[in-house]
Amino acid sequence: MKKLHQAAHNSSKITSLRIHPDLLDPIEYRKSGLSLNHIVGCPLNCTYCVRHLFDNFEMKQPEALMSDEEAVEYLIKHPFFQAHKTPLQIFNRATDPFLPIVKPHTFSVLENLDQRGLRNHILVITRSKITEDDCKWLNSLSSLKVTLLITYSGIDDERIEPISSDIAETSLYQAYAHAVRYRVIFYWRPIIPSLNDSSKHIVKAIELSRNAHATVFTGLFYREQIRKYFQDNELPDLYNEVARRKILPKQLELRIIKAFENAFPKAGSLFRKTSCAVSYAHNLPDYNGHYGIRELCSICPKQQINRCAKFWKTPSFNEVEYLAKQMGSPHTPQIKGGAIEIDGLDEQRRYYIQHALGYQVHDPHYPHLLDQHGRAPIG
Ligand code: SF4
């Protein structure tokens, strides 16, 4: 595997045997977009990191699987990539795109895509330092729809999150103050009872929400591997069971929504879903078709609900059946309750269809549960 500084300039092949096989493919389709991750490794040590799921948490030095040019070629030739349509993400699985050593690669990929005239959304999620020069550079892009999502938790237990939330707070102010062409999301997560859910934390979040085009709040992924890491390192057990989806206790969700409502108009617009906030920030309808799950929109600004209502359209059965077959499902899809159900497809193929149609696509084995908003049923 190439060292980071070499990889930007040289051609290379993926050769590492030290990396979990799932990380060796730099492209993964996630709910918020097709995600490019050709740099792996992070020194920030957030103990709840999803890198535990790939056995990669101990890799502190970011390294590149291939050059930036190769990565962009790989992305735009990927069977799931659609020019101007597929939402994209960069370095959101195994590193932070604004680490000083990673940032040149983030910018190199953005520049390459932008120079091709691509108008896709691109989501850049970070908790690192953003400078005024970074903001100027991002404003110079002319084609991509760039959104910076600044992750902030407010957790001050350094055993759990060694990096100070002050860095993200300063980045948020900086990014929002200089935003011209790109948009800024206050990405408040993970919210965990007794760690960062006090009234003081909520008041602080409301204050920060005023410095973003939109705010997303969400809970914690607490999977087996993450829980085991906490147990092995004598850290507090955050929940007494693990879950497939993010955990955000209902009462806590309601408390946050109420506090934002009470603070109106001195609170920013609050969203449950990342794609809703990103779309709103760009004055566009949600690209994930969440509008079909009506209760999700209960906290959304009226003008945005109207925007989504205008755009959202139930696809024809023939269209859905064609795409399901094209993706390899042997089953007949169903359209019901504002969503499509397709059996026999993995998550990535379902997201492809979801973004192609702007309509929710679910696995019938994990149906949407009323008022769960995609959260785990525990907590
Ligand atoms: S109207 Fe609903 S689907 Fe559209 S952005 Fe708002 S919450 Fe999301």
Short description:
By secondary structure, the chain is α/β, with parallel strands linked by helices.
Bound molecules: iron/sulfur cluster
The amount of beta strand, in percent, is: 5-15%
Q: Rg, please?
A: 20 Å
Q: Which CATH class of the largest domain is shown?
A: Alpha Beta
Q: Helix/strand-derived class?
A: alpha/beta
Arrangement of strands in the largest sheet: 1-2-5-6-7-8-9-10
Order of helices and strands: HHEEEEHEHEHEHEHEHHEHHHEEHE
* Number of strand elements: 13
Q: Which fold does the CATH topology of the largest domain refer to?
A: TIM Barrel
Which architecture of the largest domain per CATH? Answer: Alpha-Beta Barrel
What is the tally of helical segments?
Answer: 13
Measured between the Cα atoms of the first and last residue, the distance is 41 Å
CATH homologous superfamily classification of the largest domain: Aldolase class I
Largest sheet: 8 strands, mixed
